[in-house]
Design goal:
Layout: H1 7-13, E1 27-33, E2 39-45, E3 52-57, H2 70-76, E4 79-84, H3 100-115, E5 125-129, H4 133-142, E6 149-153, H5 160-165, H6 172-182, H7 184-187, E7 195-200, H8 208-217, E8 224-228, H9 236-253
Helix pairs in contact: 3-4
């Protein structure tokens, strides 16, 4: 079996956690249909339908309810938040494979644009953190007329070295497929909307060199790179809350 479709390989990469759905007051939960009959759990934290909405792909080992409090921070900068799980995470069905990290996001984006986006004045942002950087980039590249900007937090540039660290070996053809589907530095070369890249200078999981490579891959188009000193992979908000959300607010302020 191709490693990109192997459950055994996926178990080395993904860290899914199941949760009981407990929708907080003011939020609304969704079950997004994807290929094969599975559904992806999602939660919409709506502050005001006239505000910009963020379509958010989270990191590995996280689930939608981890953003119940963070959503309030997005509300504080006048943004709605829509967070999506992967297969096997949260209350989503099925189990994740590597390939589905590439094939599911366009289905999510189409659903989101048809069922969720509410502001007629401000196009949504797409945001990807860590593992979620790849699906977010996919959406930004494939739907440039529907999203105003892309934000990547702690995202990787090249996927093959990370897979090798996890013991996933690919032949040359599979390596080319993996780069095409997942390596952000390859995909970002064709992006047509502005991008903001956020990264911790002391990130030991995905080193800051990944952020710099991603930034250098972007066409000149109102892009910004924000490196937070003293921060690692999972503490950007905890250590830099004001600066972190100011970067997001300032980036989006002049977008359509």
């Amino acid at each position: 079996m191709n490693p990109l479709d192997s459950k055994d390989v996926a178990e080395r990469v993904y860290y899914p956690t199941k949760v009981i759905r407990n929708t907080p007051h003011g939020a609304r939960d969704f079950d997004i249909p994807v290929s094969g009959g599975d559904t992806l759990g999602a939660r919409f934290y709506l502050k005001n339908p006239e505000l910009r909405t963020v379509l958010y792909f989270h990191g590995n080992g996280e689930t939608v309810p981890d953003y119940d409090d963070i959503a309030l921070m997005f509300h504080a900068i006048d943004m709605n938040l829509f967070v999506v799980d992967y297969r096997g995470y949260g209350w989503s069905t099925g189990y994740p494979t590597l390939r589905q990290l590439s094939t599911d996001p366009p289905e999510v984006a189409k659903y989101f644009l048809e069922k969720v986006v509410v502001s007629p004045l401000k196009r949504p942002l797409v945001f990807g953190r860590s593992l979620g950087s790849s699906p977010a980039t996919d959406v930004a590249v494939k739907f440039p007329d529907n999203f105003s900007g892309l934000i990547l937090e702690s995202g990787f540039a090249e996927v093959t070295p990370l897979l090798h660290l996890l013991g996933v070996q690919l032949n040359p053809e599979q390596t080319a497929d993996a780069d095409r589907m997942f390596s952000n530095s390859h995909k970002l070369k064709s992006i047509r909307i502005p991008a903001l890249i956020l990264h911790g200078e002391q990130d030991q999981l995905i080193q800051v060199a990944h952020a710099r490579k991603n930034f250098s891959s972007l066409p000149a188009n109102k892009n910004k790179l924000e490196i937070f000193s003293g921060s690692g992979h999972n503490d950007l908000i905890a250590r830099n809350r004001s600066a972190y959300f100011k970067s997001i607010y300032d980036f989006s302020a002049n977008l359509p």
